[in-house]
Amino acid sequence: MLTPRSTATRELVRLDGLWRFALESAVGEEPWTSALSTTREAPVPSSYNDLFVDADVHDHVGVVWYQRMVRVPRGWAGERVFVRLDSATHEGVVYVDDERVASHVGGYTPFEADITHLVSAGQEFRLTIGVDNRLTRHSIPPGNVETDGRGHRRQRYMHDFFNYGGLARSVWLYSAPVERIDDITIVTEVEGSTGIVRYDVATTALGDGAAVRVRVADADGRPVGESRGATGSVRIDDVRLWQPGAAYLYDLVAEVIRDGEVVDSYPLAVGVRTVEVRGNRFLINGEPFYFKGFGKHEDSPVRGKGHDDAYLVHDVDLMRWMGANSFRTSHYPYAEEVLDYADRQGIVVIDETAAVGLNLAIAAGYLGQTDIRTFGPESFGDPTRDAHAQHLRELIARDKNHPSVVMWSIANEPDARDQGARDYFAPLVALTRHLDPTRPITYANMILARPDTDRIADMFDVLSINRYYGWYQDTNDLAAAEVNLEEELRGWERAFGKPIVMSEFGADAVVGLHTVLDQPWSEDYQTALLQTYHRVIDRVDAVVGEHVWAFADFQAMPITQRVDGNKKGVFTRDRRPKGAVHALRARWTSMPA
Ligand code: GCB
Prior knowledge:
The protein is α+β, with helices and mostly antiparallel strands. It contains nine helices and 32 strands. The strands form eight sheets. Strands 25-26-27-28-29-30-31-32 form an eight-stranded parallel β-barrel, surrounded by four helices. Helix 7 runs parallel beside helix 8 (523-539). The chain binds (2S,3S,4S,5R)-3,4,5-trihydroxy-6-oxo-oxane-2-carboxylic acid.
């Protein structure tokens, strides 16, 4: 799905700002049929949970309503008019005046509706959006809602981060011509010093005399190639590659031309680069690449998961300053602005789905249960997998053209030891490879599935290993952690011969807490633990990357193990450095980029 852009043939209005806002309980039936009766306003983009001094909003489980008036620009007569939501977490329904125009399940991918038949250029309409934050056994991520004796709903889920809800990304109104470009798929190859940009342009039905043209210019605007037809390729002599840390983007413009006149035009930034796994190496442009960076969250005070360009720019600059070159979009697809920026900044991204928490064994382990089954008709069966497949389709459709995205991570910490894991994952692996044959795939493994008990790792290209030796295991015993981590990594290396990314490792640290004996929760222990992992990583040849968990402290599910959130950030939630930052910076800036 194309990101809305302003071009010579398309116009764009960003509908961000303050919208009327109400919980479902505060408004009557069919609230979209009139002005929402509320004095509350909520900003878009932002999660709503932390905005008000009201526990009912913070802990709300169910639907909330957003509403505003929108005027269609006068000049849009004769154009198609669309409303587009970059996300509605986790389920959205959209009304234009009294008409329902769209609904969508999945909290981190966009959707849109053609509303041309309901609106007129120059006139206003009432735009109402219902957003449901409930997670169920059949949603991605999964969860379940319990209702207590007083009728209060409680959302349970199997992931660590807080279940923020609302309109956390932008909402748009845009115009596009009737005969238009619907989608573009780009694949790049390199032959010697020539770059090849293969493209496939999908359009609405084009009348006689209309045709597709694709032009490519370099970053200075100089034309470097052109091709005609909906499918084709453009060859770029003396190509400048998109490189980690040294992004170079060509400007591709796809056009629909009728009788010599451009009737639609859509621009796309294209980075020419290749990605490949060979033996136990991860190659970008044929060269071994080493991932240095973080697992992150879209998370900040007050806004929750609301996209914020200031945090985006600041976070990427902090990473660059530390010598980091990459991050994983743990544990859901991030806002498109993030990937556009990564493309321009040369940051490498492992793009993860929202499939986090497909694991009943973790909680069962705490409770001492051993007979729990995660995958199967009783728990996560076909309906969950269908939702997971649909989410993968939407993720890849959205992100397939980003040069920064070098790998898909199709789940975080699923129960890979469960008997049903292979049946669950094999079709999803096949689907991912079908949708994108060019990128390696991975899943983030957790400690319950070891090299000899994991049932799915062989289907993936890269082993992403999340480990907490020295924290959840071997607590306060870094000597034991060092031995156990090394033994396990060598086990993965022997069993699979694939590249390994240490995709999570870390320790909670309360900023300002120092102990001479490196006690857990101190900044000193966090640093010492990371350094323990570094020693092991440097000894195991198959390790091709290290992503520290986590970049910054973040809000978490309210449980007794969390004190106002997860404190494994090496930055605080407001991005102040803990001591570990300096140790990481010293290490990463002394390694090759
Ligand atoms: C994990 C999860 C991550 C958690 C982290 C932790 O394994 O993948 O979402 O936040 O552990 O801190 O416990």
